[in-house]
Please model this.
Amino acid sequence: MSLFSGISQRRDSQAPSPMTDQTATDFRTSALRAIRIERDAIDALEGRIGEQFDRACEVIMACKGRVVVTGMGKSGHVGNKIAATLASTGTPSFFVHPGEASHGDMGMITPQDVVIAISNSGNTSEVVTILPLIKRMGAPLISMTGNANSTLAREAVANLDVSVAVEACPLGLAPTSSTTATLVMGDALAVALLEARGFSAEDFAFSHPGGSLGRRLLLKVSDIMHSGDRIPVVNESTPLSGALLEISRKGLGMTTVVDDQGKLTGIFTDGDLRRTLDRSVDIHNTPIREVMTRHGKTIEADHLAAEALNIMEEMKINALPVLDAGGALVGAINMHDLLRAGVI
Model:
């Protein structure tokens, strides 16, 4: 037999099993069975939120450093997500691969940190190998395991039970229900810590400044409003024709109207213009004060841009005058500004 024929035979032996005669009903049956099994695994977690969970939360709340999450294989993938969720909800956290920890990355862990080690069996060799180093360092260890009698569970100050009755995988081999249960337990831990810290939506936005949520929760009206000479503004005595020129020049679809002291007294918009033309008003001789909208909606410059959006949507308007804390006109903002800023 030639070398190439041997390679060919090995490839054939590793080839996937031939397709069975599955029907659409069979696909759905398999999927629904998997969903039910994983739902049962999640339901079982409710009875395990007790003293061990409380202890885990207390240890993390007292942590002066960071939460270091570690796990191998699928547990590692879940651990990465748990670390990311903790970090974005007020608990500084990062993931360390246990294999890499044995080759230098243990230096990333300090005695002030808390370690969350994840292993369904609780005896994963790569994780167990670094336990003595974690213990010697004095960093508290929290475990998430499916075996309360495992090495990992026994060495932990708190063990979160993520055991499952059965995996959704019909072979009982691929981590499915167990990883789902672990992920949900991690989310439960993150949410409990979030609420204990009084973590707010604004705090969350600071962790996500580049996303739409960050823009909605951090961007203020003053950041995007038109100010100075870009504000469309006319005096009350200005004829309607003059106000229309100001609207055209500034391109915001409106103009603010002020009295002789510069105090805002009204606003004139495209909508007001349509209503005015229906009345056959002389645009050259009618002062703007006779056709403007008085006591219109305004917003202060230090308010969130998202609040301006809420007002515009609620009132079905496209622009707002912007005032400072003393009520003086300092800007104008319209729907296009919010759209360009990514608030919408």
